[in-house]
Give the backbone structure.
Amino acid sequence: MSFRTTPLLAGREFGLVIDNVAQEHLDDETARACLRDLWARHGLLIFKGISTIAFQLDLSRVFGPLEPHTVRELRDGEYPELYRLKYDPDNDPWLYDVGGEVLGGFTPWHFDLAFVPLSNRGAMLRSVRLPGAGGKTGFIDGVEAYDRLPAALKAQVDDVEIVYQMDSTTRATPSRCVPRAVRSPCCARTRASARCSTGSSGTIRRWSFPPWCGTRKAGARCCTSRRCSRSISSGWRRRRATTCSGS
């Protein structure tokens, strides 16, 4: 039995839906090499029918050794290669104004673990408990975004080195040394008092959305492009591969 592939969006190379992946494929080196080639070519793979942690981990290992998350507290107790992403309104008072819509558990455009010496090649997300509404996840082809930058802006940022630092109290706060021209709109943040979903006094963080920013193995570059047409916004659907494993 072979697995099936379908372009995520017609006419775009970025993004591929893969169905019918089975354990027999993960045990076959030819099939494993094919999956790695598809990832390198399309950048984003969406696997259907990934229903167990064991299969998620085995599939993740096709693309390389798994790297536990740097923050030990985020690791799963039984499966240290996994970390769980969740939003609990009773314990997370932060709300986010995203284009006029108030959301909980929102994270702006980013790539994972930018603050470690050697970043992961990628990560695999699997939806475990679906939200009643919303839950969209966006992806941007950063290679395409960088290619679309004006030549003058490319020349300005090509030799710039970016130093990342993990700060658990803020999200996407730009350093003062980053020129405004290369800052993502998501970095422009203001605060306003509001009532949180818990009923207690809290803070709304306001974000522009969608910010034209993203990376896909384009090196340590901050890429922005208002002409970028390679963004994908996807809502979670049942049986669609939130635990996360990275390699």
The chain has one domain: 49-246. The first strand starts at residue 4 and ends at 7. Confidence is low (pLDDT under 50) at residues 168-231, 234-242. The CA atoms of residues 149 and 155 lie 10 Å apart.
